[in-house]
Please model this.
Amino acid sequence: MKLLTTVVCGLTLAAVAAPTASLAPIAIGSEAFDASFGHIQGACCSEDAIYLSQMKCLYKFDWSGKLLKKKSVISHTGDICFWQGEIYTAVAVYGGTNRGKGMIQVFDQELNLVRETLLDRSTDGITILDGVLYIGMGSNHVPSREAHRENWAGRFDPKTLKPLGERQIIDFGYVTHYGIQDISNDGKHILCAFYSAKKGQPNFVAFDKDWKVVRADCTYYASNGFDRLPARFGGDQPRFFRVKTHRAPTDKANPKARRPLSVTIDFFEWKDGKPVDITQRK
Model:
């Protein structure tokens, strides 16, 4: 028994002393993606994997950027989040009899669909905080591509996918294009990335759990996906990764050809109410 105790204590100390995971940029090449699907829409992570969505496809990568699995999904699959071993996706249905509606779909870690629900509005931007699923539900302006201030948001039960209370219109004081694009949280606040309708204007907003604005003076491009990092990435402040999509230059010999896309992942802290880049670049 004494020997067992010693071994267990040794393992515990080893775990405590384990080095912080790297914050060096992660590059994912164009061979992983279909250039016809557009930019990366959303991102989430677990201890073992990074998950990305690209309109018609879900991808699973390891933390070095190696592709582990991909799955064709309904178009348009937008932002995604990870909670209790499952991946949640926010869908704006682009075709078929449900065109113009929305869906919440839930997948296991091997990208198998396990449950879903159909909604009367398109959705994008999704996270789960304290057992509540928060989701963006599009613009309160038609067409949504025009500059507007009011966007819809809702709360749902992540197990039953049933709504929790009435939907809300949120307005953080600036004009946007479309609705909420990507959502994560810092354990206390809902963090949302929008498409700003004016260059240099705030587009990264913190809300409380009731969708009330906490901070709306940040400019930070995170509309290709971001998510909170596992604890092993260290730091006293909440840490996140952020996705950037890159397009290859136009082929002058074939200017109409699809331009391959690649991805880089960098890192930031949510510190004093603002995003701070902490990527370890050479």
In short: The two ends are 48 Å apart (CA to CA). The chain has a mean pLDDT of 91. Residues 22-277 form a domain with the Tachylectin-2; Chain A fold (CATH 2.115.10.20). The longest helix spans residues 2-16.
